[in-house]
Amino acid sequence: MTRIKTSKGYLEYKNHLLNFGSKVLNPEKMLENLHILSLYLAKIDINWGPAFGTLIGIVRNEEFQPWKPVFDIYILKEDEERFKDILWLLLEADFEVVRYERRGRYYLVRNGEYIKVFVLTKVCSDVRHTGSSDFIHEKYIQNTVKWYFKGIQLNVPAEVDEYLEFQYGKDWTTPKQTVIYSNNLFVRYRYWMKTWIQDHLPDDLYYKWILNHRKKDFKKFKMQCVKAGIPLPLNVQLASMQPRKYRKVMTVGVYDLLHKGHVELYRRAKGLGDYLIVAAQDGDFILKYKPTAQVMNSTEDRKYMIKAIRYVDEVITYTDVDKIVQEVDFDVFVTGPDQIHAGFQRAIQWCEEHGKEHIVLGRTDGISSSELKAKIAAKNKEIKTAL
Questions:
Q1: Secondary element (H or E) of residue 99
Q2: Tens-digit pLDDT profile for residues 189-200
Q3: Whole-model pTM over 0.85
Q4: What does the alpha-carbon distance between residue 297 and residue 163 come to, in Å, rounded to a whole number?
Q5: Which CATH topology does 2-214 take?
């Protein structure tokens, strides 16, 4: 038995060596699987959608690819910890985890039908690696639209035709079988042996092998960029695909009126590494540059409450965000979608120039410090009026 580490403990599963031979996907069973999976993914509100040939089939024909034995989907690296947590629920819905690969792939099966999950990892600010041989521009992941496929809501790139042409060429609209699984026993045995060896390689050798292949794949990606007239990505860290033995994650904010959204941020941020540093902005500094700011708790009180949360390992104070990133030892810098002012832009640029990974984690819907303060103010007004 092998196992996957989740926030709820280790999930044990039996690792399979897969080769699908002449198997083709059963549409009815796969639709049932996708419907169940989509319900659970909706609960954690993550960015996911069809990938690779699966996406082509949906866009081109509104159908499953007739020769594909699996359904490919993507998730983002920053959502992987939440995805791993719902694996427990999927087990209760008769799914099985049958394979996990260190480069970022999960294989799920239910009723004999397989779903392959690719984890998209940032290698620079505007490009992700897919866990396969492909790279994808961030804009195609963040700028998506809802696509209804046989009653199931999926995310696809807003410029899906442009993306597919970039990835697969102008003839992507012409059906073309690119993946063939052999029934020949010798071929299948050779494939299984290769996979078994990869599975059992020590981390240092495994990631050297992966990195060597990714360098070749990235050369092809750069040629695609040149051909499409797209600027070449800068500050690319291909080695970021290799998990480090120990990673420090840092996030920053005011964190006044601590609430569920903050706890969820810390939980997800901690899942990106081993040690979480939370920097709380100094209250005097805030009032110095923004006298009208309503900070209800002192700096020390905010730090005290943050440190009490089990995901947090260290709490520090900061003034300017673009200075704190230069003063603290960390590997991953986590920000929110609304942390975009000039200081954050300088901090993010510094991270990219110095080999630090930057990840944006979305807010928890339905709650924020501003909303809580507004509710408190409205309640106080209501009480005063009643008096």
A1: strand 96-101
A2: 787 888 888 888
A3: no
A4: 48
A5: Beta Polymerase; domain 2 (3.30.460)
